[in-house]
Every structure is written in structure tokens, then in C-alpha cells.
Design a protein that fits this description.
This protein has 16 helices and twelve strands. The protein is α/β, with parallel strands linked by helices. It has two domains: 178 residues, 3-Layer(aba) Sandwich (glycerate kinase, domain 1); 235 residues, 3-Layer(aba) Sandwich (Rossmann fold), CATH 3.40.50.10180.
């Protein structure tokens, strides 16, 4: 049964999602229509909703066409002037490859009087899946799968992806020149680095082929001969800062993880709970992050530091999971199960961890909630929480408990949201 604490945590999560909804954050940043054509392109979990906001608010008497690609089940529409197609995420498929090729074709042959309006959000990297010349699509898929299982950070994964692509890492900007290029971005990456969001198809790339080689070597990911040959060619390097392709290009962050956390903090404040934002860029293994944050929460409960109860510790970012088991996971379920074990049933602490896109990894939930009785209820059902954590099977535990957070696709993405609520009372 929902409690007052879990209901407050769910309301905070919803406020974080609402702060990044495209209908709210895109219109204030729309550019002035050009003398010539406006071509809308884009990709990501929020791409369809971003395109809908543009289609609705763009002057009806000004020409507007385009194509965006989003994840399956994330489309809206049909829209009047912008086509929306769906493709696979997180492992690319043929639909994403075809969409990326079409987008690259759409921006060819434009003039300085034209405008390319590019809409980028989390997930764009997998959805814009056009391999570099000579690289097999199957090789790109295999490397992507290996990266997802390796525990590599989003920065490391996108470094590799950019150096396997014909469209990412600034190459879309090079194709669009000399048209004016405006990119509206919803950030889902720690640090809000525009070159990392969706692997930066329209912004300069400071990473190098050598760094991509280092990443695959570090995680022992084999690459085929075609990729090795590509990475020996200096001409395959991505466009760097100062490249002429970016002379008429401008990127704007329209929603960020921190703004979402701040919106959630406002909900807590209204409920009389002191919010403490620990950061919007927390990375590392989900279970290790859980143990660190459990220590902070226990310090609040026992010593009133770094905040006195009632308080809520809010954080964002993107943790990772090095997959060693065969269970049903998701980094937020993994985080919460490790948190439950670290808190050991403390009676004053509740928590939520959920992905603002509505999908925790590849499962059907956004995340889950934790209560002081999580461990005892799980054990009463015959579950062994520690064994489930070792098997990367947090989903199964929270599913049995009825504590999953299920929203369906939110059509936005400002990364993970975590909140640990510390009430006064039992010391555990």
C-alpha cells in the first residue's frame, strides 16, 4: 500500500519529469524563421514530442518540413509538417539506420538562407545509427551491445559511437553547411556536455580516434578488421572545434537534469521537507553509488548531518551496471536493491530511483520505490535480496513487492532521478 512518504517521492519524480516536457521547454527557444526553407531533423526519446511542439508553434505561413526518429512506442502524431519514425534503442536496428540516412540526405544542398532546426535528446546516439563508410552495421550493433554490458560511462560509449558513425560527432553539421543550424537539446548526460548528448551530431567533437581505441581496449571489446582499418585513417577523425562547419551553428540546452532536480526540490519544500541536492552528475556503478548515498542518509538520521530530518537527499546523473548475472535489472532497480541492503531496514528512510524517460534500462518500468519494510517483505516471500543483487535482478524483487514505478514512455529524458527521504523517528 502506498504511504505518505512514497506518495511524496512519486510526486517529486513527476515534478522532475514535468520540468523537462518538450511542450513546456521547447517553444521559448524556437529561432526566428529564415528567409528560405526550414528543415527539422532530430533524434532521441523526446524527439517526437519536441517535433510536436515545433509543429504547433511554428508560424503557419512559413515553410516547414522534416523528419525525426524516436524510440519505439515514443511517437506522437501524426504531425502536420514533420514526419516521425520509430527505431530501436538501446541497440540500433535497420529502421534507425534508414532514418539516419534520410536525415543526412534532407540537409544536403541547402543555402545560407535556409535553417536546419535539429532536435536532440537522450537516446539519439543509438537512434541515429548510420555506420561510417566501410563499417558493417552488424559490427556497430555488436560493439554497442558490448559497451552496454561493459560498465563503460556514457562519455566513453559516445566517444566510440562517434568514431563509428557517418552522422554523429559533428558530421551532421558538416552536411548541413552553409545553412544556419540551430540545435535544441534536452540533456541526459552528466555535465550537460553538448558533444555527449546524442553523441553530438551537430557540435564539435574534442574526442579522438585514439581515445575510442583506448575505450574498447580498456573494456576488452573486440573490433572487426573494418573498424580497425577505419581507425587507422586520419581522414576518419571527427570535425573539431574551429571547423568551418560550425561557423553558422548554435546549440541551446532547453532542459537539463539540474532544472528537473530543482523542480522536485520545490515539491519537497512545500511539504515541509528540507531538500538537499547532492548533484546532477553522479556516475559510477549503481550498487557502489547506493552504498555511498546510504551512508549519507544514515548520517542524517543519526547525526543530523549534512541535513537534519525531515530531509530528502536528491541526486541525478547516470550510474552504470557491469552485467555479471542473468536477471532482469535496470540501473535504478539495482541502485535501490543495493540501497536497501546498505540501510538494512532503517525505519525512517524511504527512497525512489527512476529514469525520467520512463524506461529503466530495457524493462517496462521507470524505476521503483523503497520502504523500511522492503527487505523484510522480500524475505517473507522467500526472496534472497543479496542473491538477486548478485544476479543483477533488482526488477524481479520490486515487481514481486508491487513497488515498481511504471509511467510508460514520458517522451523526455533528463536522466535518472533519485530521492532518499529521511524522516525523524526510528533509528534502525
Amino acid at each position: 500500500m502506498p504511504t505518505a512518504e512514497t506518495e511524496l517521492l512519486r510526486q517529486m519524480f513527476q515534478a522532475a519529469v514535468n520540468a523537462a516536457l518538450p511542450a513546456q521547454c521547447v517553444p521559448p527557444h524556437l529561432p526566428v524563421p529564415p528567409r528560405g526553407r526550414t528543415v527539422v531533423v532530430g533524434a532521441g526519446k523526446a524527439a517526437a514530442a519536441m517535433a510536436a511542439a515545433v509543429d504547433r508553434d511554428w508560424p503557419p505561413d512559413r515553410p516547414l518540413t522534416g523528419l525525426v526518429v524516436t524510440r519505439y512506442r515514443h511517437a506522437v502524431g501524426p504531425l502536420d509538417r514533420i514526419e516521425v519514425v520509430e527505431a530501436a534503442h538501446p541497440v540500433p536496428d535497420d529502421a534507425g539506420q534508414r532514418a539516419a540516412a534520410r536525415i543526412l540526405d534532407l540537409v544536403q544542398g541547402l543555402t545560407a538562407d535556409d535553417l536546419v532546426l535539429c532536435l536532440i535528446s537522450g537516446g539519439a546516439s543509438a537512434l541515429l545509427a548510420l555506420p561510417a563508410p566501410g563499417v558493417e552495421f552488424a559490427a556497430k550493433q555488436a560493439i554497442n551491445r558490448a559497451l552496454l554490458r561493459s560498465g563503460a560511462s556514457i562519455h566513453e560509449m559516445n566517444c566510440v559511437r562517434k568514431h563509428l558513425s557517418a552522422i554523429k560527432g559533428g558530421r551532421l553539421a558538416a552536411a548541413a553547411a552553409p545553412a544556419r543550424l540551430v540545435t535544441l537539446m534536452i540533456s541526459d548526460v552528466p555535465g550537460d556536455d553538448a558533444s555527449v548528448i546524442g553523441s553530438g551530431p551537430t557540435v564539435p567533437d574534442a574526442t579522438t580516434i585514439e581515445q575510442a581505441r583506448d575505450v574498447v581496449a580498456r573494456y576488452r571489446i573486440a573490433v572487426p578488421a573494418t573498424v580497425a582499418a577505419l581507425w587507422r585513417d586520419p581522414a576518419a577523425e571527427t570535425p573539431k572545434p574551429g571547423h568551418p562547419a560550425f561557423r553558422n551553428a548554435h546549440a541551446v540546452l532547453v532542459a537539463t537534469p539540474y532544472l528537473a532536480l530543482a523542480a522536485a526540490a520545490g515539491v519537497a519544500r512545500k511539504a515541509g521537507i528540507a531538500p538537499l541536492i547532492l548533484g546532477d552528475a553522479i556516475e559510477g556503478e549503481a550498487a557502489e553509488a547506493a552504498r555511498v548515498l546510504a551512508g549519507i542518509a544514515l548520517s542524517c538520521a543519526r547525526h543530523n548531518q549534512p541535513a537534519a530530518p525531515p530531509c530528502v537527499l536528491i541526486s541525478g546523473g547516470e550510474t552504470t551496471v557491469t552485467v555479471r548475472g542473468g536477471g532482469r535489472g535496470g540501473r535504478n532497480a539495482e541502485f535501490l536493491l543495493a540501497l536497501a541492503l546498505a540501510l538494512d531496514g532503517h525505519g525512517a528512510i524511504h527512497a525512489i530511483a527512476a529514469d525520467t524517460d520512463g524506461i529503466d534500462g530495457t524493462e517496462d518500468n521507470a524505476g521503483a520505490v523503497l520502504t523500511p519494510s522492503t527487505l523484510s517483505r522480500a524475505r517473507a516471500m522467500g526472496l534472497d535480496p543479496r542473491a538477486h543483487l548478485a544476479d543483477n535482478d533488482g526488477y524481479s524483487v520490486f515487481e514481486r513487492l508491487g513497488d515498481l514505478v511504471i509511467t510508460g514512455p514520458t517522451r523526455t529524458n533528463v536522466n535518472d532521478f533519485r530521492a532518499i527521504l529521511v524522516r525523524g523517528g526510528p533509528r534502525g
